[in-house]
Design brief:
257 residues; mainly alpha; 3-stranded mixed sheet; two-stranded antiparallel ribbon; 12 helices; 5 strands; binds zinc ion
């Protein structure tokens, strides 16, 4: 059995390095990237996770609030670098300041955050940042990194299709899935999503200052009882991000005719 495992490991490594040299060019990050989860797999993964989230949270059907979220979201989604899936926007009824993205282009916004953001530009800045994570494939990479080797192993060892294998892994480990959703992105991923977020806000005609205002709202809500809004735990490095975002907005304003 040990030899068999070694063979599986060697095949996995060969498979991975083969993909690395080929890679797929991502126009959002302008890099070639190693992604072994296909878009259809990512979308079905997103559907499974959505079912889990529906059990965990109350998804809002308030037409006015969800309508606002979807309208702003779709304007931004239309200009996203990533168009190989449909973006979905969901409002969760919970007095918590958070927003997050799952694989397959699903973006979730908590009512506690929506109620604090007064202008559409502020709401757009959070959604544009999340769309940035989708376009740069940060979300699926996070899942890939955590599930990757296990998954490749089970795909190689099994006759079952990769999609079904992935399903099995996800369904078996719903705790892992939840902790992955709420785990923090890396510093570079945050900078990259802010950069992409500003690009999509600009292309969709939103006021870029909305991003600074949204940061201010988050910072104000970090004070008081000492509780940090959840969104700052999943999307950290706010101080450095504000500096970079302000710089970039200045460049946009200079470039404007
Ligand atoms: Zn982020």
């Amino acid at each position: 059995m040990k030899y068999f495992q070694l063979i599986v490991f060697l095949v996995s490594v060969t498979f991975l390095s083969g993909c690395a040299s080929l890679g797929t060019y991502n126009p959002a990050t302008e890099r070639r990237e190693l992604i072994f989860i296909s878009t259809p797999s990512e979308v079905s993964m997103g559907k499974d996770i959505h079912s889990q989230l529906q059990r965990e949270y109350e998804i809002s059907y308030d037409l006015v609030k969800t309508g606002r979220l979807k309208n702003i979201g779709q304007r931004l989604a239309q200009v996203s670098d990533r168009q190989d899936f449909k973006y979905n926007f969901y409002l969760i009824n919970k007095d918590e300041m958070n927003a997050f993205t799952t694989p397959g282009g699903n973006i979730y916004f908590f009512s506690g955050l929506l109620d604090k953001l007064t202008s559409d530009d502020e709401v757009a800045s959070v959604l544009a940042h999340e769309i940035g994570h989708c376009a740069a494939r940060h979300t699926v990479k996070k899942f890939q990194a955590a599930l990757g080797y296990d998954l490749i192993g089970s795909i190689l060892l099994s006759q079952v299709s990769p999609e079904n294998q992935m399903r099995n892994v996800l369904l078996r480990s719903s705790n892992t899935v939840m902790s992955l959703i709420f785990s923090a992105y890396g510093r570079q991923d945050e900078f990259e999503s802010d950069h992409l977020g500003l690009k999509y806000m600009h292309l969709a005609g939103f006021n870029l200052d909305g991003m600074i205002k949204a940061f201010e709202v988050l910072e104000q809500n970090s004070k008081g009882d000492g509780r940090i809004p959840l969104i700052l735990r999943t999307h950290p490095y706010i101080k450095d991000r504000i500096i970079k975002v302000k710089d970039e907005i200045t460049r946009y304003k200079k470039a404007a005719p």
